[in-house]
TrEMBL record:
It holds the Pfam family TrpBP. The keyword tRNA processing does not apply. The keyword NAD does not apply. It comes from Planifilum fimeticola. NCBIfam families: PRK13251.1 (NF009724). Oligomer of 11 identical subunits arranged in doughnut-like structure. Residues 7-73 form the Tryptophan RNA-binding attenuator protein domain. GO terms for biological process: DNA-templated transcription termination; regulation of DNA-templated transcription. Keywords: RNA-binding, Transcription, Transcription regulation. InterPro entries: MtrB, Trp_RNA-bd_attenuator-like_dom, Trp_RNA-bd_attenuator_dom. Belongs to the MtrB family. This is Transcription attenuation protein MtrB. GO terms for molecular function: RNA binding.
C-alpha cells in the first residue's frame, strides 16, 4: 500500500437525519465492521486504520478530507 498513510482522517457532517456512516475492513474479503447513524448537524471524525480501508456514507452529508470537500448532494 505504497503512499497510504494510516491515520488519515475524514470529517463527516450530516445535512439530514439518519445519515449512515459504515466502516469497511481491509484484507482478502471486504466486510462491514462498524456503523454509525448521524442526525442533522452531527459531526463524526473517522480515521483510516490498519483495519479500516474504506468508509461508506449514505444520506446527505458534507465530507472533508485532506483532498478537499465533497458534498453528497452534488451530482
Amino acid at each position: 500500500m505504497e503512499g497510504f498513510q494510516y491515520g488519515d482522517y475524514v470529517v463527516i457532517k450530516a445535512k439530514e437525519n439518519g445519515v449512515n456512516v459504515i466502516g469497511l475492513t481491509r484484507g482478502k474479503d471486504t466486510r462491514f465492521h462498524h456503523s454509525e447513524k448521524l442526525d442533522k448537524g452531527e459531526v463524526m471524525i473517522a480515521q483510516f486504520t490498519e483495519h479500516t480501508s474504506a468508509i461508506k456514507i449514505r444520506g446527505k452529508a458534507e465530507i472533508l478530507t485532506r483532498y478537499g470537500k465533497i458534498d453528497t448532494e452534488e451530482s
